[in-house]
Write a structure and sequence with these properties.
single chain, alpha/beta, five-stranded mixed sheet, about 55% helix
Length: about 375
């Protein structure tokens, strides 16, 4: 009996070694130059040229190969891109013929690449809110040229990215739609570039609270002698620098026309979320990131970095189907009208009334 068990154990060890050797052989045969361009973009969402740029940025940040048969850095990056893009479980990624790996190896590659994309200098390079008047004026001009609404430096909203139930502080992540999520705040410009993102709050946190704690709010309030607006929905408190819809506005009145334009421009953030999730499908609400909240937040930031790289390079991603759009809408938590202090609210009303009057004069 003991001899039989030893033979079985030896056979299992040999089988594992053979699988490992087969994976290594297939990885060694991988030559990305043989992958057609359209297939490369379809699998990894980046063009070959943009992939090379990404490698130059983050390969130095990846751990060096620990042994002769270790995973090449470029293959680690391809593996992570494939996971971000497909949004499927790690096992299915690791079994692809273009990068066969054990699930544990895929997990390690994903963690290393995600950590590299979250390096502070990488985040600063690719996700950057305008810091001076010239940069703000450029964004304002683009919004004005497209929509005719002046002084807009961005649109803001939050989106819930589903995660598995956390082992700690579960109540912070359980949202009003009864699933666990990261409530991710994003600010974008008219080109769908993400200029600011915060993926550190659980799904139980309201949009208005995340904005209230955001450093960009303090930055905008500190600007002197410059008119700047962010556009948000009624989940945000009306402020001098935060333009929200007018409640119960009459259609075709000045307030109604402002609401129509404000919503039209604000759709920019909805399109940004659509493009982001269409390209990096691991973020779709119908799926779940099977990681702790901290790691899930880093994956979200990594996808935002890659989103901006693709937008700047003019690379189109796959669009969400109508069914996927509907699934996203049903899984998102409806906003709650933000409470507001009297003095700040009055200042916001004066600013919004001035904007409405300016739009009426320019009709």
């Amino acid at each position: 009996m003991a001899t039989r068990q030893l033979l079985i154990a030896a056979a299992l060890r040999e089988e594992r070694l053979e699988r490992r050797r087969n994976r290594r052989r297939l990885r060694n045969q991988l030559n990305i130059s043989n992958i057609p361009d359209l297939e490369f973009v379809g699998n990894y969402r980046l063009s070959r040229e943009l992939f090379e740029e990404l490698c130059q940025d983050i390969v130095p940040l990846l751990p060096p190969k620990g042994r002769r048969h270790g995973i090449e850095p470029t293959l680690k990056i391809l593996t992570a891109l494939n996971f971000y893009a497909r949004g499927s479980y790690q096992g299915s990624v690791g079994q692809n013929m273009d990068g066969p790996m054990a699930q544990q190896t895929v997990s390690r590659c994903l963690q290393e690449v995600t950590t590299a994309l979250n390096a502070p200098h990488i985040l600063r390079k690719h996700i950057r809110f305008p810091q001076n008047r010239n940069e703000r004026n450029l964004i304002k001009q683009k919004f004005y040229d497209k929509y005719g609404l002046p002084a807009v430096v961005g649109c803001i909203d939050c989106s819930h990215i589903a995660i598995v139930r956390p082992s700690e502080h579960e109540e912070r992540y359980f949202n009003r739609k009864h699933f666990h999520s990261i409530n991710t705040q994003v600010i974008c410009d008219s080109d769908l570039l993400i200029t600011n993102v915060d993926a550190s709050y659980g799904g139980a946190t309201h949009d208005a609270y995340i904005w209230r704690e955001c450093e960009i709010r303090n930055h905008l309030e500190g600007l002197q002698d410059e008119t700047v607006y962010l556009l948000g929905d009624s989940g945000y408190a009306l402020r001098e620098h935060m333009m929200t819809p007018v409640d119960n506005a009459v259609e075709n009145s000045p307030e109604g026309r402002y609401n129509y334009l404000q919503k039209r421009v604000r759709c920019t953030i909805e399109r940004t979320f659509g493009v982001l999730k269409g390209r990096w499908r691991c973020l779709l609400a119908a799926r779940e990131l099977h990681y702790c909240p901290e790691t899930a937040g880093k994956i979200i930031l990594a996808c935002c970095v890659l989103h901006n790289m693709c937008i700047r390079a003019g690379i189109e991603g796959p669009e969400l189907t109508e069914e996927e759009h509907q699934s996203e809408r049903t899984r998102q938590v409806p906003f709650e009208t933000a409470a507001s202090s009297t003095q700040a609210l009055q200042a916001g009303r004066r600013a919004r009334n001035s904007l409405i009057q300016m739009l009426e004069r320019n009709r």
